[in-house]
Amino acid sequence: MTVPVNVLLAHAPAPVRRTARTARATALRAREVATVVALAVRVERDVRRLGLPELAGRYGLRLAAEAPGEPPQALLPRWAGDRVRTVWRVMGFWPSARERLCLRRSLVLGARLRELEPDLVVGVRPGDGRLDAHAWVVVGGHSLDSSARLYSPLEAAR
């Protein structure tokens, strides 16, 4: 007769239960990191081949032109907050296109938050003799990128 692991752990000493919880959490984080890396590789390929509307649709984002709201304090469910943090961490090490990383990060983030029906917003601001562009994700009317407030969404800038 086999006994389920959760039954065994329920009667195990506290250090064993803590170790089991830590191992499970580590495995889940590793799986999420692997998912984000795989998505980032696909995004890297697609960004070179597809236009913005096709990219947004492929990764579960709607193109929007809203002025960004304040970053959410507790808007996201816990699972979504964990995914946001993982995407930002992984994409922080992404080797290509340091200046244009925001679009790649937004596409990966949109794919990981697809259940929340995210929007992709692209905005601009005047820079040093040039126009700076930025892309960010909006969920429930709130930007997930604090620097988004520095940019005017393209549709709103007309």
Account of the 3D structure:
With 158 residues, this protein is an alpha+beta fold. It has one domain (5-153). Helices cover 46% and strands 15% of the residues. The protein has five helices and five strands, in the order αααβααββββ. The protein has helices at 5-10, 14-47, 52-58, 78-91, 101-112, and strands at residues 62-64, 119-126, 131-139, 142-143, 152-153. Strands 1, 2, 3, 4 and 5 form a five-stranded mixed sheet that branches. A hairpin with a 4-residue loop joins β2 (119-126) and β3. α2 (14-47) packs across α5 (101-112). The protein is elongated, with a radius of gyration of 19 Å. The N and C termini lie far apart (71 Å). The model has no long low-confidence stretch (mean pLDDT 82).
In short:
This protein is α+β, with helices and mostly antiparallel strands. The chain contains five helices and five strands, in the order H-H-H-E-H-H-E-E-E-E.
Main sheet attributes: strand count, strand direction, barrel closure:
5 strands, mixed
Output mean pLDDT.
82
Strand tally is 5
How many structural domains does the protein architecture include?
Answer: 1
Write a concise keyword list for the protein shown above.
single chain, 158 residues, alpha+beta, 5 strands, elongated
